[in-house]
Design goal:
Length: about 190
């Protein structure tokens, strides 16, 4: 029997602005449900945001994630159609990747393969883009594999970077692209996977 509602699980490490944006996008869509938000930081802003939005959320530690199968078993119990990394900073263990082939996606705040890899997240990326006088930057939505930011690219969107743009302005432009494109790509993929 086919599941009528598509289930999404989100992983986040920060304030959860992308989580809220994704939730807003699917609010009127009865065919999609955010089953749970998982975070690796017990004081992450996303927990307060989920409380306000009425989304189930849990915190886990490194042992549960990397040294045992606790998080893997919990994810399996949710039967997600898609696992979405929305500002999640830990590398995903290979047993979790193997359990959800082509069902784990990430968003990166640059045009991969540029400015990817360990330590390249958030303002670190925007500072590197500015320091190298790049004329454009953007976002990359990609599948997750065992290496940081090396999974198959699903979607990219670009924005022009001006010489006068500060690191903060670059970040604003990239956030705008994330909010515009990420929920739409998630929607396409979650119905494709079903």
């Amino acid at each position: 029997m086919e599941k009528s509602v598509k289930r999404i699980v989100l992983l986040a490490s920060g304030s959860g602005s992308n989580v809220e944006n994704i939730n807003t996008h699917f609010k009127e869509n009865t065919g999609v449900s955010i089953s749970c938000v998982l975070t690796n930081r017990k004081n992450a802003g996303v927990l307060d945001r989920c409380l306000r939005l009425g989304i189930p959320a849990i915190h886990f530690n490194k042992i549960a994630f990397k040294d045992t199968d606790t998080v893997l078993r919990f994810l399996r119990s949710l039967e997600p159609d898609l696992v979405v990394l929305a500002g999640f900073l830990w590398k995903i263990p290979e047993d979790i990747i193997a359990a959800f082939p082509n069902k784990i996606i990430n968003i990166h705040p640059a045009l991969l393969p540029k400015y990817g890899g360990k330590g390249m997240y958030g303002h670190h990326v925007h500072e590197a883009v500015k320091a190298n006088n790049e004329k454009e930057s953007g976002i990359t939505i990609h599948y997750v594999n065992k290496n940081y930011d090396e999974g198959a690219i699903i979607h990219q969107a670009k924005t022009t970077i001006l010489k006068t743009d500060t690191v903060e302005r670059i970040a604003e432009k990239i956030h705008g692209l994330e909010y515009e494109h990420f929920p739409k790509v998630i929607e396409k993929l979650v119905f494709k996977n079903g």
